Amino acid sequence: MADLGELEAKLAAIKRDYVAELPARATNLRSAWILTQSEDWAQSPLRELHRLVHNLAGSGATFGFADLGVRAHALELPLMALLEDPSADRNALPELFEALMTALAAAAKQNA
Amino acid sequence: MDHVLQRILYVEDEPDIQAVARLSLEHIGGFTVEVCSSGREALEKLPQFKPDLILLDVMMPDMDGPTTLQALRATPEGSTVPVAFMTAKVQPQEIAHYKLLGAIDVIPKPFDPMTLADKVRAIWGQRHG
Q1: Which residues between 72 and 101 in chain B have a beta carbon less than 8 angstroms from any beta carbon of chain A?
Q2: CATH number, domain B7-128, options 3.50.50.60, 3.40.190.10, 3.40.50.300, 3.40.50.2300
Q3: What region does A24 belong to: left with phi over 0, alpha with psi -120 to 50, or beta?
Q4: Chain A to chain B, count of Cβ pairs less than 8 Å apart?
Q5: CA diameter of chain B
Q6: How close does chain B come to A73, measured CA to CA in Å?
Q7: Residues of B with Cβ-Cβ distance to A17 under 8 angstroms
Q8: CA distances from A111 to A30, A69, B70, B110, B121 (A)
Q9: Chain A residue closest to B31 (CA)?
């Protein structure tokens, strides 16, 4: 079985890679957000936006960025509701999205 | 026939989560792990890899976890291989739903990389212990 120190070092390396990719994820997320709105919340861009947010909800928490995980999950839920019912309320989405972007920026500044 | 858990087919679309889970399952659990990024890739790799257990992310693009499970069950090699879902949706009614679909258990996400292998072994033990 692996040495604990070696394992922790490998986990830290994966986390460093993750943090390094966060700015690119933020860019992709912003693009998906803009596209979804410009296409009037059509299913295809909405599905991609949801996928990006869902992945952040899982990975953020796994890598110890609790706020990122919580903010992503908070946005993921209404996006899923919209996928299931296009008439669902969208009023809260801009605020939830910007809160997620703030959490993303904060996580990206942290050293692994 | 009861046997030791050794080979795990792990299906997850998120590369960072793949890396952490692989590390946990291989280095802590000592398992042999094949990682697939999609349900389709899992269907392709299943016959050759011959897993003892399949870990299946629920929410994936294209083929989601339940759809992948259904497709796996329709193949000769995947008709009886135990499958556990990995998902953030772990309300009791959601877990019951996944078990109704044929999963032997559900592993909550996010998972702790230090304890994932133990959780998988416990699930296996419940079935084969």
Answers
A1: 88
A2: 3.40.50.2300
A3: alpha
A4: 53
A5: 36
A6: 10
A7: 16, 19
A8: 23, 17, 42, 21, 33
A9: A1
- Cβ neighbours of B85 in A, within 8 Å: none
User: End-to-end CA distance of chain B, in Å?
Assistant: 11
- Taking an 8 Å cut-off on Cβ atoms, the answer to whether A1 and B27 are in contact is yes
Locate A33 and state its tokens: 């957000």
Q: Is the pLDDT at A1 greater than 70, yes or no?
A: no
pLDDT tens for residues B41-97? Answer: 999 999 999 999 999 999 998 899 999 999 999 999 999 999 999 998 888 999 999
What ipTM was estimated for this complex?
0.80
With contacts defined as CB-CB under 8 Å, which chain A residues touch B113?
11, 62
At A2 the pLDDT is: 59
Mean pLDDT of B5-21: 95
Domains in chain A, please, with CATH?
Answer: 4-109 (1.20.120.160)
Q: Mind listing the pLDDT tens digit for each residue in A28-40?
A: 999 999 999 999 9
